[in-house]
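sorry for the late reply, my laptop died twice this morning and i had to redo everyting from scratch. anyway the thing you sent over, i finally got around to it. pasting the sequence first so we're on the same page, its 416 residues, then the predicted structure underneath. double check i copied it right bc i was rushing
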Amino acid sequence: MAKFSELGLHEDLIEAISWMGFENATPIQEKAIPTILKGTDLIACAQTGTGKTAAFLLPILNLLKDDSAENTRCMVICPTRELAIQIDQQIQALGYFAGISSIPLYGGGSGQAWEQEKKAIKQGVNIIVATPGKLISHLNLGYMKLQGLTHLILDEADRMLDIGFFDDIVKIINHLPKERQTLMFSATMDPKIRKLAKHILKDPQEISIAISKPAAGILQAAYMCHDYQKTDLVHQLISDKPSYKTIIIFCSTKRKVADLTRSLQKKKVNAEAISSDLDQKEREKVLSQFRAKQVRVLVGTDVVSRGIDIADINLVINYDVPTDAEDYVHRIGRTARADTTGVAITLINDEEIYKFNKIEKLTEKDVMKVPLPPGFEKGPEYTKSGKKRPSFRPKGRNSRNNNRSYNNNRSHNKRR
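ok and here's the structure:
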């Protein structure tokens, strides 16, 4: 494991890193930093929690150190406002030592915020960190000074393509100088990523680090339970672990997020919800309270599974098994950051076994199945065949009524 002092970074940046408590580089940092310092285009595959943000920020800050140019020299494009804020905060922390200015651009702000962004852009800012939609809105008005841009970074490129930002990214790139260094960071290397890389990168070097493998410090476990048991099980898991001060619970829908949060609050658990239903100020307030440990439990959808850098999460609970196996890795990657340890627990009902089979296959790990606590009815059996269950579709003229009767009986049996 290399030390940051061995990677060719300026001594001021080494001092900043040391002041923040870091000495050794992670594998993605060790491989990416020297490549970026050489000016080579790069496509890097690295999952959440591997230190990829610092892997591109440190060499870029090194290259731009004490740059007196008024034009924007670097642009970072990312999929969510949370990630844009996080990246900008890291630039502010490190850029203080390097004399670098930056601004985050993301949707959901007020008209006053827009004017402040416009003013900063016109005056000249070294690094712009932006989501695609908000960036295009500013680009269309023609006051961005991009003729001196030398570095373009696409962070979580796979997520941007999943959201549908391919055309927006191409549109943004058409505004940029052709002679530049382009860096692309992604958690996966699927054909969509290859297509985008071919379009915007020139003879890139490739780096791939621990694709789709949870960090070694994460203790993974799962409970086989019926859907109606999940909320009671969450209550017990939290009450049994008073020493866990920071807990994230992932649900599949905003409705479940709201229902579970209300249930926890009724039990006097210090819990808050975060989802796309909140406006930007509300989301930032909740995240700030969680970071400061004023909120013990954060309940959310996958909006918080990427781009939220909180170093000391004790426990991650998957209330629902994610449909995408990659999302499981990103969810549980919220814990065991920076060589720490953490616990990730998944609640699996009978209809989610097929999804969890795919996760175990992807991560090449059989997750320990823990018996339900005393007092809980026995849950479904976990099988490795994991065949997807067919939906119930009775045949005949009364199939709709029969199906309704089946669902009603099923719900009644669950309640019992």
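Residues 218-370 form a domain with the Rossmann fold fold (CATH 3.40.50.300).
thats about all i looked at so far, will dig more tmrw
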